[in-house]
Amino acid sequence: MSYSAWILLTASLVGMSCGLVGVLLILRRMAMMADAISHSVLLGIVVAYLVTLQLSGIHMFIGAIIAGLVTALLVQSFHQLGVQQEASIGIVFTTLFAIGVILISTKAGNAHLDIQHSLMGEITFIPWNTVELPFVGSVPMAVVSLSIVLLIVLLVLLLFYKEWKLTSFDPVFAASIGIPVTLMHYIFMSLVSITSVAAFDAVGAIMVVAMLITPASAAYLWTDKLPTMLVLSCSFGVAAAWIGYYVAVWLDTSISGAMAFATGIIFLISFIAAPRYGIIAKHRRSRASAALTEHA
């Protein structure tokens, strides 16, 4: 595959995995948790580096996942103690991210680990960091890790589809029929953490947040059916990856930044033109309702 094809494949995998997880985040009204986890994983990555003094390996992945789960636990704990959930999220993720920034500045200054990389990622370097696979050959490491994460997300969603649907739309009813709502919550937070970590190094925190929230929010405007919403969210994520890449090439600018911008354009189009909850559709329904009222 060509250099551009590997970048597009990597970004498309990010769009699909984040799109699937993002729908459940939106339905659970937990969009800010995407921002929190995608930033707090920086602390886990830095701590893993300081312990091992290596910038690659499974330890980085484990450290980041632990940081994501600690974020979810702290947010839930503060919320149960009476702090509003939005405030809990803001307090926890800014504190953990700040600690990560301080550790990078003071302890990891001589390593290829910096704030710009953590925010914007290094998707242009993806094709050069490869691994040899049997029967396939040389494949970018990010493509391998993101493919595995996408399969994990798909498998967990399919295995517990009924549970995700009930706990997202009516957690009280789900608990009343014996579904372990708290356990499902932390399984879901694990999915968010794994997805964020896999995408973090390739595309940075900004694009992770954009891909987790914006395509799912756009899909929510088009339909009330969960399966359709999941498919649309994935499709919007992939579309944003392709549009953003070619915009970045055209303007000679940041690829991750352009992809994040493309998600906003897709949301804006959906906000205006979506047949279910778009502005035009709402206006037409209002006019039709007013006309019926006049005739009555």
UniProtKB/TrEMBL annotation:
Compartment list: Cell membrane
TM segment ranges: 6-27, 34-51, 57-75, 87-105, 135-160, 172-196, 202-222, 229-251, 257-279
Family: Belongs to the ABC-3 integral membrane protein family.
PANTHER family: ABC-TRANSPORTER METAL-BINDING PROTEIN, METAL TRANSPORT SYSTEM MEMBRANE PROTEIN CT_070-RELATED
Keyword vocabulary terms for this entry: Cell membrane, Membrane, Transmembrane, Transmembrane helix, Transport
Subcellular location, principal: membrane
Designated name of the protein: Manganese transport system membrane protein MntD
Keyword field contains Transferase: no
A Pfam family matched in the record: ABC-3
Topology in the lipid bilayer: Multi-pass membrane protein
